[in-house]
Amino acid sequence: MAIDGKTIAQHEARAFGGKPKVFQYWNDEETHAVNLLSCVDGPESGVTSYGTVDLSQYDNQLSTPDGKPIRVEILGACASGVEAFANVMSTCALNVATGEYSLSPGNIHPRVVELYEPEATMKHVLFVPPFLWGDDAFPTMEDDDMAVAFLQAVPISDAEFELARSEGVDALEDRLAEEQVDILDLNRASVV
Fold first, then answer.
1. What is the DSSP letter of 63?
2. 31 CB neighbour count, 10 Å cutoff
């Protein structure tokens, strides 16, 4: 069975819970578009989960050892009142769609939160294997043509970004886990 946007959207909607809606976002030049699914009150009340459903149509500039393209879909969640988070997610996706970035665990998209929420404590987005919806909710999907991996967008602060640059992403991830930060809050206190 071929992996397509409908298959991905159905999988995300089941994993997120809530009522799904899909919106399309374009880059400024209107040469690339991505569709973003959102589910209000998923995985819990007061939280909105987001997921790209067709980013995997674009080259991620990575491949498996046997040459199969590795494509990605981006997942994220935020407090439901933060409308700008959909723009953060779509900008990250469009960065990949236009070839400006590729994505793998540990990649950081700088200043993307700051674009839409300049006063927020969190400024950047770190990409990690998805965990918010359960460890097994988003396994890599494969068909004959490609592998599609899911990555979760985690907003981070300037100081956290610097920690990742100086000591490595693993050090930052360890610190975030130790402090049990609320990754849904764009104004949470930095762990550094």
1. B
2. 10
List, in sequence order, every residue forming a beta bridge with 134; answer none if it has no partner: none
Write 57-63 long-range contacts (CB < 8 A, 24+).
57/5, 58/32, 58/96, 58/97, 58/99, 59/99, 60/96, 60/102, 60/103, 61/99, 61/102, 62/102, 62/104
- Segment 121-173, tens digit of pLDDT: 999 999 999 999 998 999 999 999 999 999 999 999 999 999 999 999 999 99
Cα distances (angstroms) measured from residue 17 to each of 11, 41, 141, 169, 173: 10, 7, 20, 30, 26
The domain limits of the chain are 5-154
The helix/strand/coil state of 160 is helix
> Is 154 in a helix, a strand, or coil?
strand
Taken in order 153, 53, 118, 165, is the CA torsion positive or negative? positive
Rounded Cα distance, 187 and 80, in Å: 14
